[in-house]
């Protein structure tokens, strides 16, 4: 009860319109029947606690290990308490870093929660679209056998159809009350986020109102959906080489070239440090005596940042090519980033052995 009360308190930080419209609709798509306020509040509470933990971790690293210690940016604060004022030292840089770490952790946790919800919605939609042609053909066979549309859908709702059979059973049970079967069937699109299912439900509802050969309509709809799915699979297979090429460039070629650049800069700085104290005019290597403003540490950090950006863009691009939606490619981001960092580290170690510093 205490946890539920805290969750409801935290859910008040979001707008009521967002909870009642967008979030409730998304939870319906994910087949979540619980309270939307409680669902959101628990995740906001968890994100807040993890953000607070990140804030305390960074600040304790400053207090115990001297992390981000900049004495020139520490300011005294005098509080007139009692006879002698209380003087506090405010570390500006560590506090700002701790605050940014806490906010970043909070935002990341919320992003992961909503991405998980998004993947649940898309997963249910893809499962429904995969079995929808077979389901429609079975309904058509039942109608040809003499069943009414109501009993045809009821008999076709078999367990092997997964979420589709569950939603059809829900619509059938709802139509046994005050709601008509046509209206209950049209609400399928409110619980499964699929454009294919929504188009079929709208078309089938109009056909039931106007009359016609429903079995023929179901068969033609099933064949059209299956043909669309086959064309989509062919398109995905035709773009597979582009996906492989992009992944190879991001995970292997780019980290390797960045490792070569960093190793070249290390060698150049080593030569410059030795040449600076020698007879430059006699050797004719005056350009090597000029110190470079770029350091290898700066280049390494820049390379890591570029690898993060490349991994993010590549994952979005893979999602568009393979599944048609950029968000669906975000699940590849951790793997691409990990392999990129590993290749960069191995390439640096290999070049340090093959091309040692002079």
Automatic annotation (TrEMBL):
The keyword Transmembrane helix applies. Keywords: Cell membrane, Membrane, Transmembrane, Transmembrane helix. GO terms for cellular component: plasma membrane. It comes from the Archaea. It is a multi-pass membrane protein. It is found in: Cell membrane. Pfam families: T2SSF. InterPro entries: ArlJ-like, T2SS_GspF_dom. The keyword Membrane applies. The chain crosses the membrane at residues 44-65, 85-118, 242-265, 303-324, 336-357. Residues 135-257 form the Type II secretion system protein GspF domain. Its main location: membrane. This is Type II secretion system F family protein. It comes from Candidatus Iainarchaeum sp. The lineage of its organism: Archaea, Candidatus Iainarchaeota, Candidatus Iainarchaeia, Candidatus Iainarchaeales, Candidatus Iainarchaeaceae.
